[in-house]
Structure formats: structure tokens, C-alpha cells
Amino acid sequence: MIDRDLAEKYGVETRTLNQAVKRNFERSPEDFMFQLTEMEFRNWKSQIAISNSNYMGLRKKPYVIAELGVSMLSSVLNSKTAIQINMSIMRAFVTIRQSLIINPTGSMVELQAEMKELKTYIDEVFTDYNDINEDTRMQIELINQSLAELQADKRIVEKPRNRIGFNTEEY
Fold first, then answer.
1. pLDDT tens digits for 73-120?
2. Is 10 within 8 Å of 82 (Cβ atoms)?
3. 16 CB contacts (<8 Å, ≥6 apart)?
4. Whether the model pTM is above 0.85
5. How many angstroms separate the CA atoms of 72 and 24, rounded?
6. Whose CA is closest to 24, among 93, 81, 88, 74?
7. Please, which residues have CB within 8 angstroms of residue 66's CB and are 6 or more apart in sequence?
8. DSSP-assigned states of every residue in 69-82
9. Measured between alpha carbons, how far is 47 from 43 in angstroms, rounded to an integer?
């Protein structure tokens, strides 16, 4: 996401979001977020032919924020939306951790068994499909040959025959 769009989602101004990024720069490695280069920024702006206040009004290179950066900024920003998002993320992590602690091997064993069963089933379906496909291809070829022979016979039968003898209709 671009900083402007994320700021809107979090309910803060873009400059507030960018200030939070600068103040907490150690929390924003390149795999979390980065700023467009000068060439990327120029090319990005030049792709919009008509002036658009949402994008062309930019004077500074925007930050591009990855998935990890979105969650990190939710812990840095101080808006109601950012706080709610941060709490939701923390709850999700705790729920995942608890589900792994409660029954880590049982769930994994079940999942592996289901995956193995599904793989076996898919292999059988593809094997059957390939067998049917080969048989069907042979049958279609035989049908096409028969149709070609019938067409040839039909042309011979439908060919007009010349009358024998003196034809009075022409004179």
C-alpha cells in the first residue's frame, strides 16, 4: 500500500504517518516498507495523463508499505483505528499460538493424513481420466473415419446420372 492510502485507512493524515515512520525508523526495515526512488516516482506520476488530486498533488516520494509494515505501523500510530487493528493482530497471534500449544501433533497428523488421502484420490482420478481419454480418442478417430467413408459414399450416390438415349427436353 502507499502511505497515503494506509493513512486514510488508519484515520490519520499522511504527514502524521510519515512522521511516525521517521521517528521509529528502526521498526521499518526494507522488507516492511520502502520509499519510491526518484525514477519510480517520476514514472508513476507520468502514467496518469490527467491531473488527479489524489496522486498528482504529491510533492514527495511516497512510502510503499508491505504487509509486515502495515501491522508494525498499527503499533506505532495513535489513532483509534490503528489501536483496534493492533489489538486484533495481537489476539490473532495469541489464538494461533494457543491452538498450536493445545494440540500441536494431533492437528498436524490429521492434516497430513488428509493431504495424503487427497493426493491419492487426485492421482487415481488423473489415472482414470488419462485411461478414459486414450480410449475416447481412439473411439473418436474411428467415428471420424466412418463419417468420412459415409460422406464419400453419399457424394457418389447423389451425383446426377446422365440419361441414356435421345434427350428431347434440350431441343
1. 888 888 888 888 888 888 888 888 887 777 656 667 787 888 888 888
2. yes
3. 7, 77
4. no
5. 10
6. 74
7. 31, 32, 33
8. HHHHHHHH--SHHH
9. 6
Comparing 82 with 43, the larger pLDDT belongs to: 82
Is 30 in contact with 69 (CB distance < 8 Å)? no
Q: What residues contact residue 24 under an 8 Å CB cut-off, 6+ apart?
A: 76
Kindly report the length of the chain.
Answer: 171
Residue in 11, 16, 2, 113 with CA at minimum distance from that of residue 54 = 2
Q: Supply the mean pLDDT for the chain.
A: 78
Who's near 12: CB < 8 A, 6+ residues apart? 77, 79, 82
CA-to-CA separations, 28 to 22, 24, 34, 75, in angstroms, rounded = 9, 7, 8, 12
pLDDT band, residue 29 (cuts 50/70/90): confident
Element (H, E) at 131: helix 104-158
Q: Give the H or E element holding residue 21.
A: helix 14-23
Q: Which residue has the cell 440419361?
A: 163
164 vs 82: CA distance, rounded Å: 100
